[in-house]
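User: Please predict structures.

Assistant: First:
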Amino acid sequence: MALTTVFTSLLELRRPPVRRVLMKQVYFTGNEAAYIVLLIGFALGGIVVSQLHDQYGQSREAAQRLLAMLSFREITPLMVGLILIARSSSAVASELASMRVHGEIRSLMRFGIDPVAYLILPRVLGMTVASALLGFLLAVSVQVGGAVFASGADVSYQLLQADRVLTPGMVLTCLGKSALFGMAASLVACVVGLRAQPYVTEIPKASSRAVVRGLVAVFLLDLVWALVS
């Protein structure tokens, strides 16, 4: 299954069943993980700012600026990729492996339903969109957490000065990297799930492989991004 095969099936989104699967994937990946992302981001912002003050004596504005650069460009996309791999990739791989074990994929093909259009495309697109949204949400929560720990009662002033800290390039980098990592994690999970052997014992193995290979894919992509940017 090639990447081009997935995206040549985009026209299948005009079908209501495919759109329903897509929306369910966005909901499962994005909405249900939002509170986890908010908590992690708030705590992460406080930790980074506390370390900056303790080790380097950074001023509040300098700490916020450095935190924004680190979170939007590097930490946030990577953290979102790890969260999705741990939470969603294993679930997708297990689901597809279970469908393969029970012959559901063969049944879809007998009815003339393309498995790529119905199973793969909505999951890849759903995780990609959700990953971008979660990346931005996590980056914002990191900034809020850092502002609270750095400024205390003056947190409102720091938040109102966000436009002096953030740049459009940072936001676009955050969205782009988060979407890329989400797409990579979803593709790996789908490939692993569909390639599972038709045995029940393969279902947990597929889940484990999706996590391990997803981690490798995300870190390699992050390395490539760092080298070319």
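Second:
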Amino acid sequence: MKRILIVEDDPDIAELERDYLQLNGFAADIAADGQEGMDKALGGAYDLLVLDIMLPGVSGLEICAAVRREQEIPILLVTAKKEDIDKIRGLGMGADDYVVKPFSPGELVARVRAHLARYERLLAGSKGGQQRDGGLRHGDLCLLPEEHRVFLADEELHLSLKEFELLAYFLNHPHRVCTKEELFEAIWGQEALGDISTVTVHIKRLREKIEPPCRIETVWGAGYRLKTMEC
């Protein structure tokens, strides 16, 4: 049974989220403030976090950043604010998706299922080996799909789930312009109901980890393309 941690200071919302997740076959724990959420998130073996941004004590964004430094589990942010800056900051700190209050419990369950399913599919073929032959390459960058690992020269990079999937998609479609709509559908899927601007934020984060040299170029008015590079 998948374990979900809900970090939410409003007890009515937290209990509603927990009840719906449990009715749909998940085990769900609640943390009522930021510090408790930080301790449980870093100390517990959870498969996904449902993380409110506005929390007493430690903020949801701080928890998100701390967890992302140590784990690659999906993180779903919950916020009462509609401003784009809150979404961008959260995604920039490693969150995979977000929902804006008020939202239906059914939407939350659908998002949780979608992100867990994608994470499981990505890890299903992992063999845990050290062999780096046969990976997807771009210059000195090497992605090993079955091991869910990325190397830049001799250094292993730590990418989030969505960053890994984006990089794999570009490497599997070299030199072709990929629109934001195409990337959103391919990486987030039809079950993901978020804002398409998510694509831009995740590509920015990916670029910061794999560049320079420039590998993903913006084709203005069209989308993004993996640049030609001699290996």
